[in-house]
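Subject: Sanity check before I submit

Could someone independently write out the structure tokens for this chain? I want to compare against mine line by line before I put it in a report. The sequence has 103 residues.
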Amino acid sequence: MGIKTVVNKDEGVTIFVTGSFDVSAYEEFKEDCEKYLTDSNVFIIDLEKATYMDSSALGMLLLLREKTLGDKTRVRLINVGEEVQSILELAQFNKLFVIEPKA
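---
Independent answer below. Compare away.
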């Protein structure tokens, strides 16, 4: 598991997730989200290299959604692979987030 955060003033905050997105990422993910949270920042969660996601990762995404006041345009999940996509769909996150599958 790995988290890498890149800030681009034009695009927003991109958080790259590598490997399993699970409880081991909690502190780093939370710190990065809080560090860059503003009234308008957009968060892009790039899941291209994520191989798995557990319930704690789903909880982290829900907390980020809550901190951005449920604004669907401020949290995007991009480059989502099939396995992670099925987990997100099972949890019905497609109703809560903009989810862009891997090209």
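---
OP: Matches mine. For the report I'm noting this point. The longest strand covers residues 43-53.
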